[in-house]
Amino acid sequence: MKNKLKVARAEANLSQGELAERIGVSRQTINSIETGRYVPSTVLALKLAAVFAKPVDVLFSLEETD
Amino acid sequence: MKNKLKVARAEANLSQGELAERIGVSRQTINSIETGRYVPSTVLALKLAAVFAKPVDVLFSLEETD
DNA sequence: TCATATTGTCAAGCAAACTTGTCATTTAAT
DNA sequence: ATTAAATGACAAGTTTGCTTGACAATATGA
After folding, report:
1. Could you give the 3-state DSSP secondary structure of residue A13?
2. What is the domain count for chain B?
3. Which nucleotide minimizes the distance between its C1' and the CA of A38?
4. Given this model, what pLDDT does residue B26 score?
5. Which segments of the protein form a coiled coil according to its record (chains A, B) (predicted)?
6. What is the pLDDT along chain A (66 residues), one digit of tens a residue?
7. CATH no. for residue B21?
8. Which one of A41, A43, A56 has the shortest CB-CB distance to B57?
9. Percent of chain B with pLDDT over 90
10. In contact, A56 and B57? CB cutoff 8 Å
11. Is B43 among the domain residues?
12. pTM for the model
């Protein structure tokens, strides 16, 4: 699964730490998702979508390997 | 987090087992998500959204407790 | 240049997702 | 009324999300 989090975050001018704080997770969690180390839960995806005011399906998308 | 999976599945006329097979998870996983025993990963949410041809945000939504 | 903020990553641990296997209960069809 | 299909749920085990703490590397700005 790939995601556009890094871009969305740049557009919103937020640091990983600030974003993490807003949705109540650790900075490492944001970093790990951005760098593809793991896939977030749906709750987290919905919260991220809310922060950036974009649908989940826009922020996250499936790959062949999924 | 709540979800409209049971309704969507009824509309699509699919059993839990059939749905599970389509997206490559166990039947218990579908059952557990429907009955709120746990929250799916974003990959699973995207796959479910794809099966029902509905956006993730329509199938899944946050609650106060999230 | 020096200082500070930001990012990437590792490790150890806990919690939650997901598995297979199994069984009881409910629903639907004959 | 009986059978078969579908659902709900539990248990034990594996994998993965997410945590805190830490440190090095990269960027940003005075």
Report:
1. coil
2. 1
3. D17
4. 98
5. none
6. 999 999 999 999 999 999 999 999 999 999 999 999 999 999 999 999 999 999 999 999 999 999
7. 1.10.260.40
8. A56
9. 100
10. yes
11. yes
12. 0.94
